[in-house]
Design brief:
mainly alpha
């Protein structure tokens, strides 16, 4: 039983490796791949996560401040009348990309 589980685990590792290569190849085909890869700590896999989290269209973010607010790394309170606090739900996947890229570049 242990042997069967070990073989299954090895097979899963191989599938993950193949998927990583496919994701990397698809990312390199994207028009923004050179720009995203130039950011510190972001390689092909994190770059693909970045594209997925932003929808692949950076024209939605005219400035870095807008991207930071969208991702939740620089939350801005939106108080209005009787409503207080930050009502915007941050994009956790994008926060994860920024967190991991900071760790990779350190």
């Amino acid at each position: 039983m242990v042997r069967d589980l070990a073989l299954e685990l090895l097979g899963l590792h191989e599938k993950i490796h193949e998927l990583d290569k496919l994701i990397e190849a698809r990312f390199r085909e994207h028009e923004l791949a050179p720009v995203i890869s130039s950011m510190p700590g972001i390689g092909p896999l994190l770059g693909a996560e970045f594209l997925a989290a932003t929808g692949g269209d950076l024209s939605r973010f005219p400035s870095a401040d807008r991207l930071a607010a969208f991702s939740g790394v620089a939350p801005v309170p939106r108080d209005s009348g009787n409503v207080n606090g930050n009502l915007h739900r941050p994009r956790r996947y994008l926060q994860r990309v920024f967190y991991r890229s900071a760790g990779n570049s350190a």
